[in-house]
Design brief:
Layout (H helix, E strand, L loop, with lengths): L10 H10 L2 H8 L4 H8 L4 H8 L4 H12 L5 H4 L6 E2 L5 H10 L9 E5 L5 E6 H6 L17 E2 L4 H11 L3 E5 L5 E6 H20 L10 H28 L3
Parallel strand pairs: 1-2, 4-5
Antiparallel strand pairs: 2-3, 5-6
Helix pairs in contact: 2-4, 3-5, 9-10
């Protein structure tokens, strides 16, 4: 079963599927997912089930997942992936390339690597095209970009999307309150955020709430009836006012 597909389906359908699966199977599956996808599944579970699943995950990965789950819902920290490549700025390009080639737990896709200080504070970013054009003996601190536009993990995901739009970013580092590198966001995350926010805005303008695929007709009526009633009352009031000036 491909658990990554669960991140693309309606929330109600996802919950129906996850609730019938044993926690042991979910624990095995989330270990194969990127952190942001794993969090997407875990955040909807009951606390008891979530803790039971996390207890079955290796310590290092469990810590990464807990860190993401500790951030508020709809924050950049919730949407970030904790799989990234970070190296010291005093390394050479050749050493960094060898390190990347030898790595087994690499992100599925990445366009840049990050440089960090000994305290894990973000020092800069190095695009892959810049690194590959440089000679092996070049020190990374001479070519990395210190103006890396980091995103604070606590900010709302919509603010993170605005940073991507403002600086035309493909990816960006996510830092905690102390400036330490904790994850990264990519443009595909931002596209999903923009689509979700636009959908919410359109529904809000229409005065309705989102209806799930599994919602019954009665659920839909209950969700929309108050707004339809308000619209009816305002329309009646408007027609009365207009009638006062109709001679």
């Amino acid at each position: 079963f491909d658990f990554s597909a669960l991140t693309e389906v309606d929330e109600a359908i996802r919950m129906d599927i996850v609730t019938v699966l044993p926690n042991e199977q979910i624990a095995i599956a989330v270990q194969e997912l990127d952190t942001d996808d794993a969090v997407y599944i875990l955040e909807d579970l009951e606390n008891e089930d979530r803790e039971e699943i996390l207890a079955q995950i290796p310590f290092q990965e469990r810590i990464r997942l807990r860190r993401s789950l500790d951030y508020p819902e709809d924050s950049a920290g919730r949407r970030m992936a904790t799989e990234f490549i970070a190296v010291p700025p005093f390394w050479t390009v050749g050493k960094a390339i060898d390190y990347i080639r030898a790595g087994e737990d690499l992100p599925e896709r990445f366009t840049e690597i990050f440089t960090i200080e000994p305290t894990f504070k973000l020092a800069g970013t190095l695009p892959l095209d810049t690194m590959l054009r440089a000679k092996r003996d070049v020190v990374i601190s001479d070519i990395h970009d210190r103006n890396s536009h980091p995103i604070k993990a606590e900010i709302d995901q919509e603010e993170a999307a605005q940073v991507f739009e403002r600086y035309d970013l493909l990816s960006a580092p996510v830092v905690d309150a102390s400036g330490r590198l904790t994850g990264m966001m990519t443009v595909d995350d931002i596209i999903e955020i923009i689509q979700d926010e636009n959908k919410e805005d359109i529904l809000a303008l229409a005065g309705v709430s989102e209806a799930g695929l599994t919602d019954t007709a009665l659920d839909t009526v209950r969700a929309r009836a108050p707004w339809l009633f308000i619209n009816l009352i305002t329309s009646i009031l408007a027609s009365i006012v207009i009638a006062q000036f109709d001679y």
